[in-house]
From TrEMBL:
One of its GO terms (biological process) is negative regulation of DNA-templated transcription. GO terms for molecular function: DNA binding; DNA-binding transcription factor activity. Residues 56-84 are annotated as: Disordered. The keyword rRNA-binding does not apply. This is GntR family transcriptional regulator. Gene3D superfamilies: Chorismate lyase-like, Winged helix-like DNA-binding domain superfamily/Winged helix DNA-binding domain. Residues 1-65 form the HTH gntR-type domain. Keywords: DNA-binding, Transcription, Transcription regulation. It comes from Streptomyces olivoverticillatus. SMART domains: HTH_GNTR, UTRA. CDD domains: WHTH_GntR.
Amino acid sequence: MQIADDLAAQIRAGVLAPGAQVPSESEVMERYGVSQGTVRKAIAELRTVGLVDTHHGRGSYVKSPPPVRRKSSDRFRRTHRSSGKAAYLAEAEQAGHKPSVHVLYIGPADAPAEVAARMGMTAGEKVLARRRRYFSDGAPTEEATSYLPWSMAAEIPELLDENPGKGGIYARLEEHGHALVEYVETVQARLASKQEASALRLSPGSPVIHLVRDAVTSGGRVVEVCDTVMAADRFILEYRIASVSFFELATDRVTGEGCVTGKAPGQLSERSHVSTRLPGSLVGHLSCRTGPAARTCGVADHADRHA
């Protein structure tokens, strides 16, 4: 479609800059001599390829690239925690954005059924919830809620603070003897709910990434479940997967810092289980395990998230 192609070319050339409003329907109709229906089809095509967002009553706006690259194999390293910078903030800055975090709620909550199942408790049982919204250049990009056993709040008072301190909640957990050795992430692509679209300022029907992560201790206990919804066009999820079998990782070929015979430390960085399923036209699923226990997981040292 010529109109869509022309507008796309202007966006890619920077004539229509990120955040700029696309010419109104009446302006495009007059410029090209076409009907309103034709203009709407052109704008819909631009939305489909991820170039614009449309807001009811406000018009369409050019999206702001580039997306944030979320590196699963790097973001939870303990070395990052020591710098005191949250994973999202560091990743957004690396992408050239100005990030910020707004805490929405910290306090008691009833454990949702899925969260309770992951943590080995009863649905509705009291948990500590930490809900926040993340921004990039002033625009919301994701909303996340961390759930922890309520007993942790009594044991670690900092978990109730808006700023739990350097290294975030993972640092506080480990300071109190809860050594984190593994993170299990389940990723699903789906359409945003009405509430999610409103919170993230998305067009109706926009795709989101729904990521749920378990933080697992050396004793096998899930001490945190983080439920995150991300605007799909604003993130790239990067997973580094080792090219060795689970059998090799479980045998005595795994030595020292978790390197396999013939591999230097650092080359073997992650043990992952990946599965995909695509019911319908959009929905996808990915499950990935990462963790710092090289001798049992065959992965590099991980841990950090401002939560």
